[in-house]
C-alpha cells in the first residue's frame, strides 16, 4: 500500500506525516526540531491500524534540514512503518507564500523552486524554511514527484476590495504589495468538513472559520470561496497570536524606529516573535496564559482580554461582510481545545442568532461537533483541522492528473 509523505518545514524544525494513499490513514507522524543548535531533537510516532501510538524520542545534533531528513529516515527504518510495504509515491510540501503566481498545488520543478525562493521577500520567515525542506526532501526522495501546496491558494478568490491596501497604487503594484491571506489549506479543509458535518452543500452556506493555533486567522467563506481573511501580505496581520501582534497602527513602527531607535530587523523581530500573548504576558502558549490568568496574573488576564476583543471584532466584521452566516467554526490548537476562549469569543451574541450550549462547549472530544443550542440560528461548530491530510489529497490529485 503506497503512502504520501507530507512535510511542513519551519526555520529550525520540520513536521511530517506519512499517510496511506488509499485509506488516508496516518501511518506515522513526527517532528525534527532545534536544527542547527548544539542539541537537536527528533520525535517519531508510529500509528498502528487500531489507532495505538508508539512514540520514540532522540536527542542528537542535527546540522541542517538535510541531516534532519536523514534522522527521519533512520527513525522510519528503525521503528516503522516499512517503506517496502508502504513505498512513498509522492511528497507534499506546505509552502506558505504562493503570491499571485500559484493558485493550485504545483509539481516542484527547478523553475518552481526558483519562484518560491523569489517569493521569500513576501514571507521572509516562512518561504526560505519551506525551500530548505524541499531541497532536503528532494535529496532524500529523488525518484518521486514533490508537490507544493500553498497556504495562499484558497484565498485567490478574495475580491479586490478585500485584498487591496489603501496606499499608492503604482508603488503597491510594483512591489506586489497586497493582501494574500494564509492558512488556506486549513480553511479549505475545515469549511468543507463543516458543511459535510451539517449535511449541507458547501456551495450553499456561509461560514466564519476561526483557525486559532500559534498563528491565527479568521476567514469568511461564502459558498466554499474565501471572500475575506484576517492575514494580509504576510502572516502578521489580523488576530492576536502566540508571538505576533496582529493588527497594529503602522505609525507605531515608525515611532519605535524614531524614538526607541529600533532597527528594521528589531521591529520585525518584535512584531513577529516577541509580541502577541508572549509580549503581553510573558507566555506565548495559550494554555499557560489561561492557567496564569486563573491564578490571578493580571498581565495574563489582559492578554486574554485583548485576544478575545480582537477575535470578536473579526466575527462582527465578517457577519457584516457575509450578510448571512450559517456557521461559525472553531479549529486548530486553541479553537479545538479551549472552551473558555470559544465561549468568550461568542458570548452575548444572541441578537446575531448565536447561542452557545455550555455543556456541549465543555465536552471533550476529538471529533467534529456542534456546541450551539438546538435553537441557535447560527450553528457553532468545533471541527479539527488536518492540513497534512488536505496536502496529501491535493498532492495525489496532482500526481494522478
Ligand atoms: N487545552 C488547551 N487550551 C488552550 N489552548 C490550547 C490547548 N491545547 C492546545 N492549545 C494551544 O494551541 C496552540 C497551538 O496550536 P496548533 O494549532 O497546534 O499550532 P501550530 O500548528 O500553529 O503550531 C498553543 O497556543 C496551545 O497552547
Ligand atoms: C501562515 C502561518 O502563520 O502559519 P503558522 O500558523 O504555521 O505559523
Ligand atoms: Mg498549525
Verbal overview:
The protein is of the alpha/beta class and 401 residues long. The chain folds into two domains: 3-150, ATPase, nucleotide binding domain (Nucleotidyltransferase, domain 5, 2-Layer Sandwich), CATH 3.30.420; 201-387, Nucleotidyltransferase, domain 5, CATH 3.30.420. The protein has 15 helices and 14 strands. The chain has an eight-stranded mixed beta sheet, with helices on both faces. A hairpin with a 3-residue loop joins strand 1 (3-9) and strand 2. Helix 1 (65-79) packs across helix 3 and helix 11 packs across helix 13. The protein is globular, with a radius of gyration of 21 Å. The structure holds adenosine-5'-diphosphate (ADP), acetylphosphate and magnesium ion. Substrate binds at residue 94. Pathway: Metabolic intermediate biosynthesis; acetyl-CoA biosynthesis; acetyl-CoA from acetate: step 1/2. Homodimer.
Which bin fits the share of residues in helices? 25-40%
Structural class: alpha/beta
Order of helices and strands: EEEEEHEEHHEHHHEEEHHHHHEHHHEEH
Architecture (CATH level 2) name of the largest domain:
2-Layer Sandwich
- The helix count comes to 15
Q: Estimate the strand proportion.
A: 15-25%
- The rounded distance between the terminal residues' Cα atoms is 20 Å
Overall form: globular
Strand order of the largest sheet: 5-4-3-2-1-6-8-7
Q: Would you tell me which CATH topology of the largest domain applies?
A: Nucleotidyltransferase, domain 5
> Quaternary status of these chains?
single chain
- Number of structural units classed as domains: 2
Low-confidence stretches: none
Binding site for Mg(2+): 8, 387
GO molecular function: acetate kinase activity; ATP binding; magnesium ion binding
Function: Catalyzes the formation of acetyl phosphate from acetate and ATP. Can also catalyze the reverse reaction.
Pathway: Metabolic intermediate biosynthesis; acetyl-CoA biosynthesis; acetyl-CoA from acetate: step 1/2
Amino acid at each position: 500500500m503506497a503512502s504520501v509523505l507530507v512535510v511542513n518545514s519551519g526555520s529550525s524544525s520540520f513536521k511530517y506525516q506519512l499517510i496511506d494513499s488509499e485509506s488516508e490513514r496516518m501511518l506515522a507522524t513526527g517532528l525534527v526540531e532545534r536544527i542547527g543548535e548544539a542539541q537537536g531533537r527528533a520525535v517519531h510516532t508510529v500509528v498502528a491500524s487500531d489507532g495505538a501510538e508508539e512514540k520514540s524520542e532522540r536527542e542528537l545534533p542535527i546540522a541542517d534540514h538535510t541531516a534532519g531528513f536523514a534522522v527521519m529516515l533512520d527513525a522510519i527504518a528503525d521503528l516503522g512503518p516499512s517503506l517496502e510495504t508502504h513505498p512513498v509515491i509522492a511528497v507534499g510540501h506546505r509552502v506558505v507564500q504562493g503570491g499571485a503566481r500559484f493558485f493550485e498545488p504545483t509539481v516542484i520543478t527547478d523553475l518552481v523552486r526558483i519562484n518560491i525562493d523569489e517569493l521569500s521577500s513576501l514571507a521572509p520567515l516562512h518561504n526560505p524554511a519551506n525551500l530548505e525542506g524541499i531541497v532536503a526532501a528532494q535529496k532524500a526522495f529523488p525518484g518521486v514527484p514533490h508537490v507544493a501546496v500553498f497556504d495562499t491558494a484558497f484565498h485567490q478568490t478574495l475580491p479586490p476590495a478585500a485584498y487591496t491596501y489603501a496606499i499608492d497604487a503604482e508603488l503597491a503594484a510594483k512591489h506586489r504589495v497586497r493582501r494574500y491571506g494564509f492558512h488556506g489549506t486549513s480553511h479549505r479543509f475545515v469549511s468543507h468538513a463543516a458543511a459535510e458535518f451539517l449535511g449541507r452543500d458547501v456551495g450553499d452556506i456561509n461560514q466564519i472559520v476561526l483557525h486559532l493555533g500559534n498563528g491565527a486567522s479568521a476567514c469568511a467563506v461564502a459558498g466554499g470561496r474565501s471572500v475575506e481573511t484576517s492575514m494580509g501580505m504576510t502572516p502578521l496581520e489580523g488576530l492576536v497570536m502566540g508571538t505576533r501582534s496582529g493588527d497594529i497602527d503602522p505609525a507605531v513602527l515608525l515611532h519605535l524606529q524614531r524614538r526607541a531607535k529600533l532597527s528594521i530587523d528589531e521591529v520585525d523581530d518584535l512584531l513577529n516573535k516577541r509580541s502577541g500573548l508572549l509580549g503581553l504576558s510573558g507566555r506565548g502558549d495559550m494554555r499557560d496564559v489561561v492557567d496564569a490568568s486563573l491564578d490571578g496574573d493580571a498581565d495574563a488576564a489582559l492578554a486574554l482580554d485583548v485576544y478575545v476583543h480582537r477575535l470578536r471584532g473579526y466575527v462582527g466584521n465578517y457577519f457584516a461582510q457575509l450578510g448571512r452566516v450559517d456557521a461559525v467554526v472553531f479549529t486548530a490548537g486553541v479553537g479545538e481545545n479551549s472552551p473558555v476562549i470559544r465561549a468568550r469569543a461568542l458570548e452575548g451574541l444572541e441578537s446575531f442568532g448565536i447561542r452557545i450550549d455550555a455543556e456541549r462547549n465543555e465536552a471533550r472530544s476529538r471529533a467534529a461537533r456542534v456546541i450551539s443550542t438546538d435553537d441557535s440560528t447560527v450553528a457553532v461548530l468545533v471541527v479539527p483541522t488536518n492540513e497534512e491530510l488536505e496536502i496529501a489529497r491535493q498532492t495525489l490529485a496532482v500526481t494522478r492528473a
